[in-house]
Specification:
The complex is a heterodimer of chains A (about 375) and B (about 300). The relative contact order of chain A is 0.09. Chain A is flat and about 75 Å long. Helix content of chain A is about 45%, strand content about 10%. Chain A is an alpha/beta fold. Chain A folds into 3 domains: about 80 residues; about 190 residues, Rossmann fold, CATH 3.40.50; about 40 residues, no CATH class. In chain A, helix 1 packs antiparallel against helix 4. In chain A, the strands form 2 sheets. Chain A has a 6-stranded mixed β-sheet, sandwiched between helices. A 3-stranded antiparallel β-sheet of chain A has the order 1-3-2. Chain B is an alpha/beta fold. Chain B folds into 2 domains: about 190 residues, 3-Layer(aba) Sandwich (Rossmann fold); about 100 residues. In chain B, about 50% of the residues lie in helices and about 15% in strands. Chain B contains 15 helices and 9 strands. A 5-stranded parallel β-sheet of chain B has the order 2-5-8-1-9, sandwiched between helices. Classes of the chains: A alpha/beta (about 375), B alpha/beta (about 300). At the A-B interface, helix 2, helix 3, helix 4, helix 8 and helix 13 of A face helix 1, helix 2, helix 5, helix 6 and helix 9 of B.
Chain lengths: ~375, ~300
């Protein structure tokens, strides 16, 4: 189809096709270099005459997750349909705009009209939410980073040591006889089981889930906690991180980005409208509905990092926590204000939350956080 | 292969799927066709009960080939999925060979021959003569280590058994992987697979499914059933009813001789609701008034 006679229009089509994978990558799709070749091969198979078949086939080929699946149609149109030919990838725009995000840049995306919705970063905030985007540049500052990473490595190592039970093969004498392995070993002795094999409880690491409050009242601490989450993600693969202010957003992928600069970029995209008010209850309700069924289960420890200043309804917060409590193994609340002299958890939010917490620990600085680790880990054993 | 023949293939595949009882949207049919062209596995994601597993079953039936199913679970290890030695028979054989004159090496070779090998799904899928359909169900339940192992198998299509050596695939299975999204899958796996997100069916599609799977339901009742279920799905529930639940409910209504869903019959609908609503919290969201409202909207 694309090979034999290649008059200019066909050549243009090939170029257009070949650039599509890169366009998706620029829009945050997980697409590799080899996929451009696959796109051409697919187009050769299915042909270009029926745009729908090409669309469906490329959608199956290039998407890898639900968000990508949803955004695909708009991006396909933007790339292949002439009207929108000059539409630039949103991601790049956002990062060029990153430097001036503070100066009211958030009006920009909404001014461009809502038909662009799907191409916009998904979690862009509504205009009513505070738009002062917080500064992520500090995420790479070395002196803090090194210290936090050292602490977190220690933390992660201890976490790795704690495991819930599950059976596995024992090196030496264990609790239960492993019959298949015993017979396997008996072969050199003509079937006489001279060397026994045992099974031992294998232990499964509990999963950690971080919920980080990034509202304005937490501004001084949330970046600190984000760096901490990033350091932890590097050590443990099964950690999930979320941020919340008036709504909750998953940030695990962004934090696991190996390149710190890119991690910063991605967080920039997610963070528009944060450092606004807090609605912990609403955020948790949303979390329970959208994320909890997938990532909270009987061996998950949920760690909430927040000062507990909630502008929402306290009853909502208690209900949401009660529901979360039923799913999770443990809920720990890290409150940065906790170790200030004379602090008592009297704010409405804290009062509503207290009955459902396994522990309330201080976390205003590295030292207090380190001191709190044993209490976080306690009960996971 | 030309474009027009591809379009024809697509239409044929869709017809075949429909004849086998599966209403596939064109994107899914396109992906299934591409899967055979490119030799890639297809990854199906979606809520429980939207018919992901059914895709593999139907695919096997229209290709007239075997369906080999590997159900993943937490703690599944590569061994249980590949092969196991038949220990009991081996033990017997060892006893029988005790007075055999042959040397030990030969005996050992005998004991670890294919006769004593129990094939588990993965080995079975690549060692068959005709290409089978391999369904790897709910891969998100298995752990990351298993996923990595699976990636290796899916790229090389060979397995190594220490006692026997490497087993190369005699046929390449069509691989269908499903996930409910309880765990985030690795990017490597996602990139190797064709992807399809399957959503709850819309009104027309679900009506077609009910018509196909439960032909004894009258057209008028089928329309009401589907409208009711679609209404239920729009509610904020813990566990939304899938297609199987719709069909169960249709069967229940038939059984109770309920010919129409209306406000007056709300009491009787409540009796059948257990086929549709599966958790206590969700049940609490359905007092009589809600049912009457939903029924009135049908």
């Amino acid at each position: 189809m694309l090979t034999a006679e290649t008059p200019p229009p066909e050549l243009r089509a090939v170029e257009r096709l070949a650039g599509f994978a890169a366009f998706l990558r620029a829009n945050g799709f997980c697409v590799g270099g080899g996929d451009a070749v696959q796109v051409l091969r697919t187009a050769e198979r299915v042909g270009l005459l029926d745009g729908r078949v090409l669309r469906w086939s490329l959608q199956a080929l290039l998407c890898g997750r639900r968000e990508e699946w949803r955004r695909f149609d708009e991006l396909f149109d933007a790339w292949f349909l002439p009207a929108n030919r000059w539409q630039r990838p949103e991601r790049r725009e956002a990062h060029e705009g990153g430097a001036r995000l503070r100066s009211g840049a958030a009006a920009e995306p909404s001014a461009r009209g809502d038909d662009n919705d799907a191409v916009r970063p998904r979690h862009a905030a509504s205009d009513r939410e505070a738009l002062g985007s917080a500064d992520f540049r500090t995420l790479t500052r070395r002196e803090h980073l090194l210290e936090i990473e050292a602490l977190m490595r220690r933390f992660a190592r201890r976490l790795k040591a704690i495991r819930l039970r599950r059976e596995g093969r024992a090196v030496r004498r264990g609790r239960r006889l492993d019959l298949p392995a015993t017979i396997r070993r008996s072969v050199p002795f003509g079937g006489t089981p001279l060397r026994l094999a045992w099974r031992n409880p294998r232990r499964v690491r509990p999963r950690l889930l971080l919920l980080i409050d990034v509202s304005r009242s937490m501004e001084a601490y949330s970046f600190f906690y984000l760096r901490l989450a990033r350091a932890l993600s590097a050590e443990l693969t099964d950690i999930r991180s979320f941020i919340f202010h008036t709504r909750v957003t998953a940030v695990s992928d962004a934090l696991q980005e190996p390149d710190p600069w890119r991690a910063q970029e991605r967080l920039h995209l997610i963070a528009q409208g944060w450092a606004g008010g807090t609605r912990i209850g609403d955020s948790l309700v949303q979390f329970n509905r959208e994320h909890a069924p997938r990532c909270v289960h009987a061996r998950t420890a949920v760690i909430i990092m927040s000062d507990g200043y909630d502008t929402g309804e306290p009853q909502k917060l208690s209900d949401a926590l009660a529901e979360l409590r039923r799913r999770a193994r443990r809920i720990v609340w890290v409150n940065p204000l906790c170790n200030r002299p004379g602090y008592a958890p009297v704010s409405q939010g804290m009062q509503a939350a207290l009955p459902y917490l396994d522990a309330l620990v201080p976390g205003g600085d590295l030292a207090s956080l380190e001191a709190a680790l044993p209490r976080i880990l306690e009960g996971l054993r | 292969m030309t474009a027009s023949s591809h379009a024809r293939d697509l239409a044929t595949l869709q017809e075949d799927l429909a004849r086998a009882g599966y209403i596939a949207e064109p994107p899914l049919a396109a992906a299934l066709l591409l899967m055979q062209d490119l030799g890639r596995p297809v990854l199906l994601e979606g809520e429980a009960g939207v018919g992901k597993t059914e895709v593999a079953k139907v695919l096997a039936s229209i290709r007239k080939t075997r369906l080999i199913r590997l159900q993943c679970y937490e703690g599944l290890d590569a061994h249980a999925a590949m092969y196991e030695w038949n220990y009991q028979r081996q033990l017997l054989a060892i006893k029988l060979l005790e007075h055999d004159e042959r040397d030990v090496a030969q005996k050992e070779q005998d004991i670890f021959s294919e006769r004593y090998l129990l094939k588990r799904p993965l080995l079975e899928a690549i060692s068959g003569e005709a290409a089978a359909v391999l369904l790897i169900d709910e891969i998100d339940r298995a752990d990351e280590a298993f996923e990595a192992f699976l990636l290796e198998l899916l790229s090389d299509f060979q397995l190594s058994i220490p006692e026997l050596g490497t087993v190369h695939a005699t046929s390449r299975p069509l691989v269908v992987i499903t996930s409910n999204g309880t765990r985030e899958l690795s990017d490597a796996l996602r990139r190797r697979c064709l992807y399809q997100y399957i959503d709850y069916p819309d009104y027309e599609k679900e009506l077609a499914i009910v018509g196909k799977k439960a032909p004894e339901v009258t057209a008028a009742l089928a329309r009401q059933i589907v409208a009711f279920v679609q209404g239920v799905r729009r509610m904020d529930l813990k566990k939304k009813p899938g297609i199987a639940e719709t069909l169960d409910w249709a069967a229940a209504l038939l059984r109770l001789d309920i010919a129409a869903i209306d406000v007056d019959g709300a009491e009787r609908i409540i009796e059948t609701l257990s086929t549709l609503i599966k958790t206590r919290e969700d049940r609490a969201a359905f007092p009589r008034e809600v049912i009457a409202r939903l029924a009135a909207a049908c």
